[in-house]
Design brief:
This protein is mainly alpha-helical. The protein is built from six helices and no strands. Helix 1 crosses helix 6 and helix 2 runs antiparallel to helix 3.
Length: 96
């Protein structure tokens, strides 16, 4: 279950804002990427675990980097989704 939630976060961080993920959930569910329920779980988990550092809109806050947009893509576009997943799994949230 934790792996599914982390994967949901990785998808969100890969450039989908939580609103965009929710808007795209029906098509993504049809494509077998994730379900609307998983998108909702990811949105809820992001709000609880991530938004305090990375901002509710994924834009970053203070020294914490954004999780969407050009800055995020510049950092992660040359790395794999597995690299991003491992970063999230091993270092976030910072309090755990």
């Amino acid at each position: 279950m934790k792996r599914v939630l982390l994967a949901s976060l990785a998808l969100a961080a890969a450039g989908f804002s939580h609103r965009a993920a929710m808007a795209q959930a029906p098509q993504a569910a049809k494509d077998g990427i994730y379900s609307a329920g998983q998108a909702q779980q990811g949105q809820t988990l992001y709000g609880v675990q991530c938004a305090s550092c990375h901002a509710p809109d994924l834009g970053g806050a203070g020294p914490m980097p954004p999780l969407a947009g050009d800055a995020f893509l510049g950092t992660w576009s040359s790395q794999t989704l597995d690299d991003l997943f491992e970063k999230i799994r091993t270092t976030m949230p910072a309090t755990k």
